[in-house]
């Protein structure tokens, strides 16, 4: 049984031909799945009943089951999905005034083990398929309605995208193909904790989408304590990879920096960050820490975060403080999944 959302358009054409159908059927099927968001082949009314029967016997459309939705007063919605093997992942819908963003997961759990991340506490289970990544978009778009079109996708949910490169790459192909989801490459951002081979590979194979780096510290000593993967890919190697990356002032690299009280939020840290990114087209996103029960860190104060931000602006580095969204729901990455897992226990 073929998971049809695992196929890019060329593969969909080959699949359709392998069933004995005309090539144009691929475009019809893609329109029904990605534009009209149908759940079954029976809904494809411009395809014959006989052809629909063959499709139903050889392929399936949805691979996720919606388990729970939490909605915040600010409009943010947190989704928990169950995969066919019983594992669960999260997505987050973030509405803005002029656009809507979806944060998608790429793995069940995460092997990186960042100390401030709740997802990391559950360990790593497996990579998501391209279909399981794309299906997050389809399910959420169905739920929020076509009048709230999701134009932006950020690969910043559960998992490290570059440790699932092939499936992430295919998901991006499906999301940006004009016959499929038809999203702009400029509206897709892939975030990595600093997997250097992945950065170099993205530079060659996916450089039309945006790159974000979860840096979170300015010295290897501190970063190794909160991001253990730094022992393999230290800050100097990450910065060298960013200098090789084909970025410019239009497509700047986003530096993500979670603000942890007394850990990485000093003025001295800000000054070191200025030196680290010198000569690299970047913008900096300062992220308030989303605490959770038993968290080993505290969020930096608003005052300290603004001091940090000022140092960056004083050196002509664009620095923004991310709004804390969904604070009245399970906002932290992995929090809804963990909460529901405890409820099941």
Automatic annotation (TrEMBL):
Keyword Lipoprotein among UniProt keywords: no
EC assignment: 2.1.1.192
Catalytic residues, chain numbering: 90, 333
Positions contributing to [4Fe-4S] cluster binding: 110, 114, 117
KW Mitochondrion (keyword) present: no
Domain Radical SAM core: 96-328
InterPro entries in the record: Aldolase_TIM, Elp3/MiaA/NifB-like_rSAM, Methyltransferase_A, RlmN_N, RNA_MTrfase_RlmN, rRNA_lsu_MTrfase_RlmN/Cfr, rSAM, rSAM_sf
Cofactor note: Binds 1 [4Fe-4S] cluster. The cluster is coordinated with 3 cysteines and an exchangeable S-adenosyl-L-methionine.
Matches recorded under CDD domains: Radical_SAM
A cellular component term, taken from the record's GO annotations: cytoplasm
Catalytic activity reported: adenosine(37) in tRNA + 2 reduced [2Fe-2S]-[ferredoxin] + 2 S-adenosyl-L-methionine = 2-methyladenosine(37) in tRNA + 5'-deoxyadenosine + L-methionine + 2 oxidized [2Fe-2S]-[ferredoxin] + S-adenosyl-L-homocysteine; adenosine(2503) in 23S rRNA + 2 reduced [2Fe-2S]-[ferredoxin] + 2 S-adenosyl-L-methionine = 2-methyladenosine(2503) in 23S rRNA + 5'-deoxyadenosine + L-methionine + 2 oxidized [2Fe-2S]-[ferredoxin] + S-adenosyl-L-homocysteine
GO biological process: rRNA base methylation; tRNA methylation
UniProt entry keywords in alphabetical sequence: 4Fe-4S, Cytoplasm, Disulfide bond, Iron, Iron-sulfur, Metal-binding, Methyltransferase, rRNA processing, S-adenosyl-L-methionine, Transferase, tRNA processing
GO molecular function, one term: 4 iron, 4 sulfur cluster binding
Main location: cytoplasm
Binding-site residues, S-adenosyl-L-methionine: 159-160, 191, 214-216, 290
SMART domains assigned to the protein according to its UniProt record, in alphabetical order: Elp3
Entries under NCBIfam families matching the protein: rRNA_mod_RlmN
HAMAP family: RNA_methyltr_RlmN
Note: Reaction proceeds by a ping-pong mechanism involving intermediate methylation of a conserved cysteine residue.
Family statement: Belongs to the radical SAM superfamily. RlmN family.
Protein name: Probable dual-specificity RNA methyltransferase RlmN
Annotated source species: Desulfurobacterium thermolithotrophum (strain DSM 11699 / BSA)
Gene encoding the protein: rlmN
